[in-house]
Amino acid sequence: MTSADSAIDYALSRSWLLVSGDRPETFADSVASEADQLIFDLEDAVAAARKPQARDIVADWLSVPGNEGWVRINDADTTFWSDDIARLRTVPGLRGVMLAKVESAAHVADTIAAFGGRVAVVALVESALGIEEATAIARAGAVRLAFGSGDYRRDTGMAATDLAMSFPRARLANSSRIGKLPNPIDGPTPGSDLDLLRAQTVIARDHGMTGRLCLYPAQARIVNEAMSPTAADVDWARAFLGEFEREGGQIRNGSDKPRLFEANRIQRLASAYGVTTAV
Questions:
Q1: Tens digit of pLDDT for each residue in 80-133?
Q2: In what residue span(s) does the HpcH/HpaI aldolase/citrate lyase domain sit (predicted)?
Q3: Are 18 and 39 in contact (CB under 8 A)?
Q4: Which parts are annotated binding residues for substrate?
Q5: Contact indicator for 187, 18 with CB cutoff of 8 Å
Q6: pTM of the full predicted structure?
Q7: Residues in binding site
Q8: Radius of gyration of the chain, Cα coordinates, nearest whole angstrom
Q9: Beta-bridge mates of residue 15
Q10: Which residues is 260 bridged to in the sheet?
């Protein structure tokens, strides 16, 4: 296989691995990772002087038959934005783009229009203004919202604590629901501490995030595990649905509807991710 696992649709994708666009020597390891989606980064990971070269490297790689991936393009308020789109718009292996530093619905709408309406756009929200405009952004045609947590903290002065990050995460989750989008993609955990990554991913999941940006190939497996139902979850869902059907498939009390929704959700995700039962 020459790309991340193509069996996982972007709406259900858990791990989104950022790959520096000017480091083609890292592409093979990224492809071999367990990431649901690869994102070739033309924005923060690439110095301004190297952006034209990185753009060509990524476009050429995506033009090879069988190679696929997303590209994080530069934000709409820079001169690099139009150059990124011009180079990528006809590349056959482009699955979609992640638009950096989205702060308005117009940023999304303009990007969709510039690609001729043929390319999916994930809106990366990275500032106080972006968080305030998240609902309008979600309604503007993006396929998912993502959280640029590092730039958001730099913009607002907030700490990298669970409490401080609960507001923007909740805002993105609510806005995604209002915009009828899949739940959002959380920002990454820097560093190589996989135990910390797992703990922070569980917290992000509890805040309504169902995907996570990854900075290193090894992080993808941890994110996938933490964002997936467990075998015990699957056992519970099957037991509940079995009991529900045996009792006639009729709502019995006020807790049945939310439990029925959760059981069906777990089964759908387990099927998508290949999670099996514990017994």
A1: 999 999 999 999 999 999 999 999 999 999 999 999 999 999 999 999 999 999
A2: 14-161
A3: yes
A4: 72, 126
A5: no
A6: 0.92
A7: 72, 126, 151
A8: 19
A9: 212
A10: none
pLDDT at 82: 98
Percentages helix, strand, coil for the chain, rounded to the nearest 5? 50, 15, 40
Tell me the residue type at 179.
Answer: G
Q: Measured between alpha carbons, how far is 163 from 2 in angstroms, rounded to an integer?
A: 40
In angstroms, the CA 76 to CA 82 distance is 8
| Amino acid identity, position 132 | E
The pLDDT value given to residue 249: 84
Tokens 């006639």 sit on residue? 248
pLDDT in tens, 6-35: 478 999 999 999 999 999 999 999 999 999
| CA–CA distance, 145 with 212 (Å, rounded to integer) | 11
Q: Does the structural domain 15-227 have CATH classification 2.60.120.890? A: no
Residue 264 to residues 23, 30, 233, 244, Cα–Cα distance (Å)? 42, 32, 11, 12
Binding residues for Mg(2+): 126, 151
Domain borders along the chain are: 15-227, 231-273
Cα four-point dihedral sign 215, 216, 217, 221: negative
Closest CA to 67 of 98, 45, 26, 38: 38
Q: Characterise 206 by phi-psi region: left (phi > 0), alpha (psi -120 to 50), beta (else).
A: alpha
Reported as type and span, the H/E element at residue 62 is: helix 51-62
Q: Cβ of 154: how many Cβ atoms within 10 Å?
A: 12
Q: Which two tokens stand for residue 246?
A: 């045996």
Q: Which two tokens stand for residue 186?
A: 């959380």
| The residue count for the chain | 279
pLDDT in tens, 145-200: 999 999 999 999 999 999 999 999 999 999 999 999 999 999 999 999 999 999 99
Distance between CA atoms of residues 57 and 76, nearest Å: 21
